[in-house]
Amino acid sequence: MATISKATQEFVPIKEIRDGVIVLKDGSLRSIIMTSSLNFALKSQDEQTSIIFQFQNFLNSLNFSIQIFIESRKLNIRPYIALLEQTEKEQTIDLMKIQTHEYIEFIKNFTDNSNIMSKSFFVVIPFTPAILQAKKGFGNFMKKKRTEGEMAEEAGHDFEEHRTQLEQRVDVVEQGLVRCGIRIVQLGTEELIELFYKIFNPGDTEKPIALS
Which of 203, 11, 23, 53 is nearest to 126 (CA)? Predict the structure, then answer.
């Protein structure tokens, strides 16, 4: 019996990424914000207490669930090495050229022998539209069949309405994190595509998403 192989896309719950919003196959929406980190250990006792208190208040203020995702990957040093190599070529003083070359070799050896990891922090904010049973009731059976254009218009209207409610949740999360001293940036369509590409293609190295 022949084995039917399924495309990778069939195992990914994402239907599309639209206007900076992830639309899942079940109709629910997701928004992702990237956050900075805090060096908690270097804070004073009073600052640590204040951060814990603010974060506790933030969590208690939520009436919806969130997901905190930490991405760890080996630091990609190749762009920095390429910059140094270009600097070495442009050096006109022999001593500076030799020192730059030695520094490049030091960086290469250090990174090859050390497991240097970079970490990125994300918060996933969900929104699942309520299912209106009235739309699926017997009354719809008696209505005139809608055209494809009318269905597309209704879908677009529903998306904008649900997106607005999702953005309200994003605002709540952003304000809570900012009070904790954390910088945030909401990922747009291109950043989301890049993030998922790196997740599903861990062997490829792309430039990191920058915090504004």
Answer: 23
